[in-house]
Amino acid sequence: MNATLTAEQKLELYYWMILTRTFDERMVALYRQGRGLGGAFSQRGHEAISVAVGYALQPEDIVAPMHRDLGTYLLRGMAPRRVFSNLLGRATGITRGRDANLHGAGDLSLGLVGFISHLPLSLPVALGVAMSFRYRKEARVALTFCGDGSASAGLFHETVNMAALYQAPYVLIIENNQYAYSTPVSNQTRVTDFTQRAVGYGIPGLAVDGNDVEAVYAVVKEAIERARAGGGPSLIEAKTMRMLGHAIHDGAEYVPRALLAEWEAKDPVINFARKLVESGVTDRDELDEIGQRAAVEIEDAINFAESSPFPDPASVAEGVYAE
Ligand SMILES: Cc1ncc(C[n+]2csc(CCOP(=O)(O)OP(=O)(O)O)c2C)c(N)n1
Ligand SMILES: [Mg+2]
Questions:
Q1: CATH code assigned at 237
Q2: What is the per-residue pLDDT across 49-59, written as a single tens digit (0 to 9) for each?
Q3: Ligand nearest to the CA of 178
Q4: Alpha carbon distance 182, 248 (integer Å)
């Protein structure tokens, strides 16, 4: 399967990467200024994964993202205005002010299953979706994410086993960002090579540099198309680093500074920009222009969100259950 990207596609990927990064930076700044509401989970460091996945999926596929998969939300067509409004608890947000982060924020018309806070419950839910595609003989794929920490939960094993047994059109990305809150991977499991788990269930397990958007795209695209063609599920471990704390309140003092510096040098957005220039795909001016476009879009989203109303208290009982 040929996953070669054209120059135009690479620039598109860069746009989504910088849009995701800019959204995240502005979100963090807003919270630090006391303009946020509730908690906020920075995805800094995860851009290549969430963007590549969003890019590799087809419109008919279904994805159940986690709390650090902002790029996937944006690529599915979730407008920055809607996401920012959600973070600020406004009536114009995805959950109409019911939740002030990305938890539960889905939209099935965009093929997005809302993130389920109880980890890793998105895994069996996405498997249910994949099984429905299989029963209906539809050439569609369900993809979901799991953290290095969530991969220790019992449901992870039950779900992967069942997906493998029934050869479900299912793709699972383990985002190994080295930490689960303050717990490093080495304190979580003796098997720190997560692809080995795939062996135990008889499905392909592939490791990929989660900071290389083109590499993630190639691996994920292949897994998606294999699943679509009836080839069954895949487990992909994308290695990256959570560059900030677990959430906005967490300064992550427990993360060695040297480790962060090591990963800072592998920044997925900066390195992709450099690669695009060095390989002659584009020049700095064009990248700056794309960055400007992203900045304008995000400022518009913030203005829209901050000037949007909070939900009417009288509507509190509306939309509590799935409609
Ligand atoms: C069942 C359950 N227990 C605890 C939590 C609280 N919690 C939220 S995120 C998190 C850490 C998850 O780590 P990981 O799976 O590695 O994902 P990351 O946050 O690193 O992306 C914890 C313990 C939860 N959401 N659900
Ligand atoms: Mg983690």
A1: 3.40.50.970
A2: 999 999 999 99
A3: 2
A4: 14
